[in-house]
Amino acid sequence: MLGYIRQEATNRRTQLIREDIAGIPFLTLYCGDRITSWRRRRLLRVLHRMTQMGVRQAVVPKPLMALCSEAGIDPISESPLRQALLEPILDCFCRQNKLDIHRSTVRLCASRTDRGVQQAAELLARKARYVMLDTGRGQEELSDRLRRKYGLSTGDSGRGAIMQICCDEAKTLEMPTLWLGEQCQRHQCVHYQLRKPWKGKIDENPQLLCALFKEGKLPDEAIRIESVESYA
């Protein structure tokens, strides 16, 4: 079962209930944002109870991530949703940062070449002038694939990259970076907006949207990208 932790700007009493969101059952914890030492102990007990009831992943507000981790509850990763919406996210990121990748080099980095890396590489092959690969094991095979399918010789052609897409926790360079991978929300926040008829019916919480997307309850065309905010 998935969890949903709703932290409200009140001093409300901690409450644990079951609720259904778009056809998916959630075990929802309501709590206030005033966390005294006593309330922290109380909250930790309730979080442990959630794990005993089968919750291992939840929609977790950022201020409570450390406490949830202590209880054995991980935040729902946004990686599947970002992979599915990579093209509009990339377009939004480039507009915000005034990056013209159609005439420039984009670096793609990862510790190994998996399916997500391959999808990102094929998107870049269609949109960027040059693609610089730094994708670890499987990089040579990926380079051969891009050359056969798109006629793309990977490399920067003597030009430095103007941005990079990082598909995991691989070492990055100092330049504008678009993050994918399981820990992507640690580095960057993507602001989503729902289109009609979903708008107003579902909270536009990125973790919640990803949970619904993974369960097939929310199509990717229902979501538009508002902005991409990188953390310092």
Your description of this structure?
34% of the residues lie in helices and 27% in strands. The chain is built from 8 helices and 11 strands. The model has no long low-confidence stretch (mean pLDDT 92). It is α/β, with parallel strands linked by helices. Strands 2-3-1-4-5 form a 5-stranded mixed beta sheet, sandwiched between helices.
Question: Summarize this, please?
Answer:
The chain is α/β, with parallel strands linked by helices and 232 residues long. The chain has eight helices and eleven strands.
Tell me the layout of helices and strands.
Blueprint (H helix, E strand, L loop, with lengths): L1 E7 L6 E7 L2 E9 L4 H16 L4 E3 L5 H7 L2 E2 L3 H6 L1 H12 L7 E5 L5 H13 L2 E5 L4 H12 L10 E6 L10 E3 L4 H4 E7 L11 H9 L8 E8 L2
Helix pairs in contact: 1-2
